[in-house]
Amino acid sequence: MKIPELLAAALPQDCVTTEAWALQSYGCDRTTIWPAQAVAVVRPRHIDEVQRCVQLANEHGFALVPSGGRTGLSGGAVASNGEVVLSLERMNRIVDFDPVDASVRVEAGVVTAQLQDYARDKGLYYPVDFAAAGSSQIGGNIATNAGGIKVIRYGMTRDRVRGLSVVTGKGERLELNRGLLKNNTGYDFRHLFVGSEGTLGVICEANLALAPAPADPLVLVLGVPRFADVLEVLASFRQRFSLSAFECFSDNGLRKVCAAHQLAPPLSTPAAYYALIEVDECDGAAEQAVAAFEYCVDQGWVSDGVISQSLGQAAELWKLREYLSETLAAWTPYKNDISVAVSRLPAFLVEADALMAARYPDCEVVWYGHIGDGNLHLNILKPERWSKDDFLSRCSAVTDELGDLLVRHGGSISAEHGVGLLKRDYLHYTRSPAEIELMRGMKALFDPRGVLNPGKLIG
Amino acid sequence: MKIPELLAAALPQDCVTTEAWALQSYGCDRTTIWPAQAVAVVRPRHIDEVQRCVQLANEHGFALVPSGGRTGLSGGAVASNGEVVLSLERMNRIVDFDPVDASVRVEAGVVTAQLQDYARDKGLYYPVDFAAAGSSQIGGNIATNAGGIKVIRYGMTRDRVRGLSVVTGKGERLELNRGLLKNNTGYDFRHLFVGSEGTLGVICEANLALAPAPADPLVLVLGVPRFADVLEVLASFRQRFSLSAFECFSDNGLRKVCAAHQLAPPLSTPAAYYALIEVDECDGAAEQAVAAFEYCVDQGWVSDGVISQSLGQAAELWKLREYLSETLAAWTPYKNDISVAVSRLPAFLVEADALMAARYPDCEVVWYGHIGDGNLHLNILKPERWSKDDFLSRCSAVTDELGDLLVRHGGSISAEHGVGLLKRDYLHYTRSPAEIELMRGMKALFDPRGVLNPGKLIG
Ligand SMILES: Cc1cc2nc3c(=O)[nH]c(=O)nc-3n(C[C@H](O)[C@H](O)[C@H](O)COP(=O)(O)OP(=O)(O)OC[C@H]3O[C@@H](n4cnc5c(N)ncnc54)[C@H](O)[C@@H]3O)c2cc1C
Ligand SMILES: Cc1cc2nc3c(=O)[nH]c(=O)nc-3n(C[C@H](O)[C@H](O)[C@H](O)COP(=O)(O)OP(=O)(O)OC[C@H]3O[C@@H](n4cnc5c(N)ncnc54)[C@H](O)[C@@H]3O)c2cc1C
Q1: Strand-pair partners of B377
Q2: Which of A173, A187, A343 lies closest to B98 in CB terms?
Q3: Which residues pair with B223 in a beta bridge?
Q4: CB contact under 8 A, A174 and B442
Q5: B188: in domain
Q6: Domain FAD-binding PCMH-type: where (chains A, B) (predicted)?
Q7: What is the model's pLDDT at position A32?
Q8: Residues B189, B241 within the same domain
Q9: Residue nearest (by alpha carbon) to ligand 2 atom 19
Q10: Which residue on chain B is closest to A410 by alpha carbon?
Q11: Are residues A183 and A78 part of one domain?
């Protein structure tokens, strides 16, 4: 029997499809580098069916690509090698909510925004948030340890995970940590699965911690002529506030967003860079924010600024940052998602800036990122006249130089998007040969026949 | 050559000792169950020497016991089987501090209180705190993922760790996560080492996140006649405050502490249980606290209470909780350190209470714990007329029943003290056979010759 027939025989009939549109659509993520070449798409409704699927893969030696919302930016969910896509999208129930523990138990296919809304309805807050929240799924968030715009206060997806139900590559079911706050009984596999990009097991359910509902937001957008001064602005606001977001972006990015979405520029005087700052609205917050702003102007760090006067205006200001990634997609950008310790940013930026200027004389470079976490997205836009292949090979060469620079500054080649296929060959800039060897060992332990996402992450 | 000679030949001479007092003192932790039977004690000053030591152990097939302050309560640092104790106590430098990142880099032998003081001097806060902070070490805290009295607000030791330098059982050096806030480049080994109890590698240095300095504390001690009502009190205070601690203890424990330390009882009307609550002192906090207290009295949950009027009085009230563990040591207690989800506590307590009453009719049972995290310490006191061995075997049998109960309530057999030798045979109540098998595989990966802490945790 062929693989799709094997699957159809073992699972409810409507779980398996080989229709061309499905193979195409479920075979790609938001990278548009690798062609979709899946042989089938399986969409189970229950963890037992996931397990059956993994067992079949082991018995018959075919490969599975665990798949969430396919909003990933590193090719982790790409099936371009005759794999079977294992989509979790039908497992999208919110199984349980406990107000005392302030936790939810959800299936992996729950969409991030669905959980955010659910939490809000319960008077609580699910703080993992980013521009793809409307389609990314909890399973994908956990498998990539997604970050986003609220990390500075709430941490990464990892910090929400109190428990996981997984099916390992071997086909075993594990119940990890059972939602406990405290459980010191040996190696914490839960944290191993967070960020494992579908290479060790399929995440089927998760117990997640919710946060108290935050105060209404007060949002500022400040113009900052020199990039390094963004860090001075960060320090000034940090002294006065517990920040809930601190983002930055370059003017060329802003202009593209405004043009694409018919938005007015936030400031009458443009600046080379902008900082978007969010703090809790409360008594005196606006006065404090104005004082911090004026201090930054006096120091010459900030040229102009705006502060939200309503929730509506706060949301409008956020669009300038949130629409960036999607807007740039039109330019087929090559994305570097890098980080260094915040204290290392100034020195790193000087060198990174020089490197980009020297190596991409013909390309536009858009900078933005979660700079309060030391995380920058360097988007290299493809000049129209270049072919995709030429562009990619030029970018790959520069990524090697960027890798060397990151090594010198103790940084990471992937801050939040993960490794997947896109950064696999650059992994050694952040992880040592001994670590990569141990990663292979770990993979062999959980997935001895290598049925889960082969070729991703560690190759 | 004998082992001590091998070590003396390979390391600076004063690193190795075989003096009887040292073998005795370095061979035990705070459990007093297993006799010290170490063959040597090594106290390196540098990570290179640690590595040399692990390499020698691999070459010559002897066992090492990584050793911190030996305040552990599960026998993890016990050397009762002819092992070499590898003490980190001389590696006690604070290597680096960065105010921008609010982080420190410390060697493993830094004492917890030393780091707390250092952070305070810098205007910051190291929030991992418990009664053994004066002698436990950072390496031991990380290896056990220590919890303590501030978990409810700040999390466990795990949540502080931004980077680790370790020497694996194989003798390789790993630099894990390098202090980064965001680094999604594959399996996070850092979290695997946290809580690994010296079985995978020797933790030599750590990069730790410091917190902002907290406000002055306001402390309440409330008398609670029925244990289950402690949870109602918790919920009432949680509604009004972001708690920085919520502890509880039973009256028999309190009486012992007061007698041993000549302390006055906190309340004129004793109660069967007490809740100790800490919140930040700020405008209106005392009024809110009194309101919450009065509400609890009106509901019949609380019989009496006291609220601190000064920092001195707050510290005095804390002694009632902090002195408990040391005070009970005189009774050779058998400690159960268990947890369930907070929402499961009421149902669990009913059954646990009945079990203790039925199985320990002749023993005094002292209850206390970090109940805001679902974590209870059940201390069974040895009746004077019983031999230590009789007592232990009686307690072990009851621990099996407690294990069954925990399974039914989805709890953990070790919330914060770790497994070591003491809970090794009960690990299966919390981790499945598949998980334990995977733990063995992981051990084999990092420590193929089994030189690090053999027999601990997974046996
Ligand atoms: C506009 C835009 C903005 C973004 N902004 C951010 C941002 O700010 N921060 C950030 O971190 N990311 C960001 N991303 C990247 C992406 O959205 C996240 O990585 C997201 O968490 C991926 O979720 P997903 O469900 O789409 O996963 P997918 O893309 O479907 O899969 C991602 C990886 O996880 C694996 N996987 C998926 N589901 C499972 C499962 N159930 N079990 C095991 N493995 C599984 C896949 O095999 C793959 O390796 C952005 C993406 C876009 C398009
Ligand atoms: C009075 C009292 C109160 C306590 N209260 C609490 C509490 O509230 N919460 C809590 O969590 N614990 C508590 N404990 C338990 C204990 O203090 C903690 O587990 C502490 O973190 C142990 O640190 P240590 O340096 O003493 O470790 P040790 O006892 O020396 O070792 C503990 C384990 O860690 C390993 N280890 C030590 N150093 C290293 C290293 N550098 N690399 C690798 N492995 C290493 C050892 O092999 C052993 O397995 C208490 C203990 C006492 C005596």
Answers
A1: B337, B368
A2: A343
A3: B274, B304
A4: no
A5: yes
A6: 34-213
A7: 86
A8: no
A9: B72
A10: B178
A11: no
Residue nearest to atom 7 of ligand 1 (CA): A148
Question: Which atom in ligand 2 lies closest to the alpha carbon of residue B130?
Answer: 8
- Sign of the torsion angle spanned by Cα atoms B148, B150, B156, B159: negative
d(CA A105, CA A47): 14
Q: What is the pLDDT of residue A459?
A: 83
Residues B197 and B224 grouped into a single domain: no
Q: Are residues B133 and B80 in the same domain?
A: no
Average pLDDT, chain B: 96
pLDDT attached to residue B1: 82
The 10s digit of each residue's pLDDT in B36-57 is: 999 999 999 999 999 999 999 9
Q: How far is residue A430's CA from residue A409's CA, in Å, rounded to a whole number?
A: 11
Number of compact structural domains in chain A: 4
Nearest to A363 by CA among A392, A400, A320, A405: A392
CA of A178, closest CA in chain B: separation in Å?
7
CA B88 to CA A456: how far, in whole Å? 39
Chain A residues with beta carbon closer than 8 angstroms to that of B435: 174, 176, 186, 189
Which residue minimizes the CA distance to atom 27 of ligand 1?
Answer: A140
- Pick from B51, B87, B88, B130 the residue to mutate for probing ligand 2's pocket: most ligand atoms within 8 Å of its CB: B130
Around ligand 1, the residues with Cβ closer than 6 Å are: A 29-30, 65-73, 76-77, 88, 108, 130-132, 136-137, 139-141, 143-144, 146-148, 197-198, 202-203, 325-326, 416-417, 420, 453, 456
Contact A340, A410 (CB under 8 A): yes
Which residue does chain B place closest to A102, by CA atoms? Answer: B343
B224 and B194 part of one domain? no
CATH number at residue B245: 3.30.70.2190
ipTM: 0.96
Question: Which range marks the domain in which residue B374 is found?
Answer: 332-434
Residues B435 and A426: their CA atoms lie apart, in Å, by 32
Please report which ligand is nearest the Cα atom of A200. 1
Per-residue tokens: A410: 């103790």
Residue indicated by tokens 């691999």: B58
Listed in sequence order, the residues at least 6 apart from A2 whose beta carbon sits closer than 8 Å to its beta carbon are none
pLDDT the model gives residue A182: 97
Name which of B171, B230, B162, B228 is nearest B202 in CA terms.
Answer: B171
Cα(B140) to centroid(ligand 2), Å: 5
Q: How far apart are CA B255 and CA A424, in angstroms?
A: 61
Domain for residue B456, yes or no? no
Going by C-alpha positions, the residue among B218, B222, B234, B217 that lies closest to residue B306 is B222
**Which pLDDT tens digit goes with each residue over B85-116?**
999 999 999 999 999 999 999 999 999 999 99
From the CA of A138, how far away is ligand 1's center (Å)?
Answer: 9
Torsion angle in degrees (nearest 10) through CA of A265, A267, A273, A277: -100
Residue A449 lies in a domain: no
Q: Do residue A181 and residue B339 have CB atoms under 8 angstroms apart? A: yes
Residues A224 and A299 in one domain: yes
CB A243 within 8 A of CB A236: no
- Considering only CB atoms, B416 lies closest to which of A184, A191, A457, namely A184
Angle at A370 between CA A368 and CA A372, to 5 degrees: 125
Which of A182, A342, A411 is opposite residue B339, by nearest beta carbon?
A: A182
Residue with structure tokens 């104790």? B85
Tokens 């805290």: give the residue: B141
Ligand 1 atom with minimal separation from the A326 CA: 1
Q: Which residue has the tokens 């057999």?
A: B413
Q: What are phi and psi of A236, to 5 degrees?
A: -65, -40
> Given the DSSP bridges, would you call strands B375-380 and B334-339 parallel, antiparallel or unpaired?
antiparallel
Q: How far apart are CA B312 and CA B117, in angstroms?
A: 18
Pairwise CB contact (< 8 Å): A342 & B100:
yes
Q: What is the torsion angle, in degrees rounded to the nearest 10, for the CA atoms of residue A32, residue A33, residue A34 and residue A35?
A: 50
